[in-house]
Records
---
Amino acid sequence: MDIHNKNFIITTSEKETLNLAEKIAKLIKPGDVISISGELGTGKTCFVKGLAKGLGISQIVTSPSFVILKIYHNKIPLYHFDVYRLDKPFQLEDIGFNQFQYADGVTVIEWGNKMKELLAFDHLQVKFDYYENKKRKIKFIPHGESWVKKIKNLNLINSI
């Protein structure tokens, strides 16, 4: 793991990405929203798998790209959206997105940048980019005071 500043890190393996997401999961409260963006294959679903593990979800997590939404039940449910195949925000509204976004679980949206106008004001944006030699650059952009505080207090150094 390579730390460049407090808002992003470089992971060098799938395991590091999973461990990072598990650490983020410890900050999650019911009602939290996380928007994930990045090119195909950059680690978005891997990150969601780590979040699920950190939330104590034992089900196998897979991308819901063909079904749009998968729900994983636990003490804090995980509502996992993949909006890659959607073109317009109203398509997400039509399937009841807001009832999940403001519910008792955590809502995670892969390709969330496509639907940013629908996101709650208070959410965490996670951007994945390819980096040299199969590494991933993961940037955290907090929106709203609660995520600003959570990310500020997150100690990423030597924790993955």
---
Amino acid sequence: MLEIAPGVAIAEEELRFEVSRSGGPGGQNVNKVETRVAVCLDLQATAALSGEQKQRVRERLHTRISKAGVLRVVCQVHRSQSANREEAVRRLVELLRGALAEEAPRVATRPTRAARERRLREKTLAARRKALRRTRPEDE
């Protein structure tokens, strides 16, 4: 079981692993051994997430989810399949934790007096700078 959040755990049976050959340098190892690992989680089929949680994950990770509703995380940084497998699962858990985290409500604030005065002073200086760039009729 992968502990995502309090009360949310995904069974390892729900994960599907795909292996393939990694790209990049590595000599003969790259040409022979399938070390790239992709871990896939079918969001529609998983029983670990409620409907609301699934929707939140879909909204926040929409660029990583296929049209079939499968979240896929690929890892090929290590030279061994087992290390890439562990890293891919770690990344998946991290992504899901981030997607399921509650956002803190924004608290409206007002700029301080010093910040307002600084902003006006900078605007005045910018206006003077631009005025100096303009050509004057008496200069021609």
